[in-house]
């Protein structure tokens, strides 16, 4: 069952188009990592999902309701954490909890206490005296303590140290798994996302260029490393459609490919590089994919559209399977 | 679906949070509101100290809207609707509930505090309960409008600094526009010679209320959509202009109940141009006549104005012809058997049923298309006995919104030393909390004073002269007055070198008899209550031809 259903979503800020014809679904219980370079439209998309921003056109349903018509009752089932969100600065953390708790029928005081302990937050401190990381932790506490069905997080790890980040990721993983939460998270902390997410979306220039399960990304994207006998390796004049990114240095060539079949890759490597001396295949990390997709997006429109084509076909296949 | 907090509880929840968060600023507002109103209700302030107190309280009164605006902006910006990083829209809170909570605080709690403070001040002036709420509401209108503006402006902004900047810019801009339009506005005010003026006042109030509702609706939309648009700014600016204009134009149109006694009263105006030699300003003479006035009533001419109407080169000219002048004196309602007036009866001090006013226009030759128009508003008043107090230093009374304190007696029992002039009898401080009409020239003279000897059933009318201009301290007006025995006969006889003492003028055999009479006399104070307003207008059809008169009927 889709918790989030988006069709042909477009959003414009004046003449600037922030989101172009975005369509996707997020199933209940999944942890969805939304990736994209700065300015790709992630925050706009998340704000539209929360009903904080009315979309210019398209259909956005959250919890089976149009995002623009979300009521307090719907929001009582949702949690939202975003970088830069302004909590009431003159309140202490205890006052903040006291203010927020009655709004959520599912508020869990035990969980709030546990999170406060885990985050090492002093309830008597005023919000304005908290550091950036502590501020985010306080926001996270308020978002998690109601045990939301849908948790939307925009750069939630900002300012957090590695240990807390790790704690948080494990906590969210554990709770979302146990309680069936749906989590949508946009972050540049790709290592954490790789641990956390089971679905990945990649936004570039307002277009959703990738939308598929993490497992599929892991298995589909591979690094092909070739060492040729030439002093300077020669790349094919026309880059094949499934090349996401390539780089060469002397006789060495690295190509990120969107092709899971290892045998097929090895055969094609021989075609592309007849003077290959050694051919190796490595798994690509989420970071590799993100960086390659971003670079390719910046590199040229033609390449981007080739990628888009590939990714869309793949995405449709996976989504159809998931549904 | 899990149940969220009910809507009304959400409103209360956010409201309670705002009260808790801004309690200190709320205390500042409460103290400010009470100080700005109750400060003037403190009796027995000496004249010298009173000046300082009144200046301070007047400053507090002027700055009360600033405190109110700041507090309301802080409350609104606490959950700023258009702040992109706002946290509150992500909570399980209805946006309508948040808007409702802000309304409850800014347009509920804060005006209530101002109303209570104003009502308390009026109570200290013994204003009758039936007048208490209308007076308090009228006294709070300025703060209420400020709050509507502050609420709407703050909803469009992100922080307090931006609010202060925009508030100053809007206020200064609106003042500039008002200043530019002031001449036209004043003419609109002066154009009272027809019934349409009352209509325009009502229309103005309706437009004002409609604009206020429009701005509040736009603010609700801001909470709903969290978007700012230029139409909301325009609506806000329009409201600022209308309200500032309204502060100038908002004068009472009279008693809407139209008492029976005013039905037969006819007011007519007549305008005549007096030919002047070349190079000398033209003068116009015009007469206001009030007919059908019953003996117990007084008619006062309010805002006599001559304006030039026309097009092209005919620039509008406004000319205030004369200060307030009263027609006919009523029989003062002193209870008991009939009185003998010593000296001149008060009714003789007034003009009969009409008054002539002479006016000069600045240009000797008026363009042919310019038509001088004389307008007049006549206030019909009735005397109402307020109180009688001994003529002693420190004697005082407070009633129906008025307070009179005898500061010192120049010729009273036990005090003969301060007899500066033979006619001067006492110095009194007269304060009132009754809401004033900003263009009411009569406001400084709402009371009449009479010396009454109950046992002898004799009375002497007193003339009250202002020592200085009225001291307006916020909602209270203070007048320091000298009470004089009527000396018009003295003036009349001086020319014939038959100067007589003041006691002789009032029919006493000697000064001792006069002092003895004074010891048995009391100071009786009357209030002139406004019954209604009648407008009349006279238009000169041709500047070279004597004008025609136009009647104004009862209101």
Largest sheet of chain A: 6 strands, mixed
General shape of chain A: elongated
* Class inferred from helices and paired strands of chain A: alpha/beta
Number of domains of chain A: 2
H/E element string of chain A? EEEHEEHEHHHEHEHEEHEEEHEHH
Work out the number of β strands of chain A: 14
Total number of beta strands of chain B = 17
Instruction: Figure out the total of helices of chain A.
Output: 11
What separation lies between the terminal Cα atoms of chain A? 8 Å
- Overall shape of chain B: globular
CATH class categorisation of the largest domain in chain A: Alpha Beta
Number of contiguous helices of chain B = 11
Structure in words:
- The complex is a heterodimer of chains A (323) and B (555).
- Chain A contains eleven helices and 14 strands.
- Chain A has 323 residues and is an alpha/beta fold.
- In chain A, the strands form three sheets. In chain A, strands 6-7-8-3-9-10 form a six-stranded mixed sheet, with helices on both faces.
- Chain A is 38% helix and 29% strand.
- The longest helix of chain A has 22 residues, at 301-322.
- Chain A has two domains: 2-197, Rossmann fold (3-Layer(aba) Sandwich), CATH 3.40.50; 220-322, Alpha-Beta Plaits (2-Layer Sandwich), CATH 3.30.70.
- The N and C termini of chain A lie close together (8 Å).
- Chain A is elongated.
- Chain B folds into two domains: 7-249, no CATH class; 260-552.
- In chain B, a hairpin with an 8-residue loop joins strand 1 and strand 2 (283-291).
- The model of chain B is unreliable at 192-199, 248-258, 413-420, 489-499 and 541-555 (pLDDT under 50).
- Chain B contains eleven helices and 17 strands.
- Chain B has helices at 7-21, 23-38, 47-78, 95-124, 129-156, 160-190, 196-225, 230-249, 488-494, 502-505, 511-519; strands at residues 266-274, 283-291, 298-309, 318-320, 325-327, 340-341, 354-360, 371-390, 396-399, 402-409, 424-432, 447-453, 458-466, 471-473, 476-485, 521-539, 550-552.
- In chain B, 40% of the residues are buried.
- In chain B, strands 3, 4, 5, 6, 8, 9, 10, 11, 12, 13, 14, 15 and 16 form a 13-stranded mixed sheet that branches. Chain B has a four-stranded antiparallel sheet with strand order 7-2-1-17, with no helix packed on it.
- With 555 residues, chain B is of the alpha+beta class.
- The interface between A and B is medium-sized, with 32 and 26 residues.
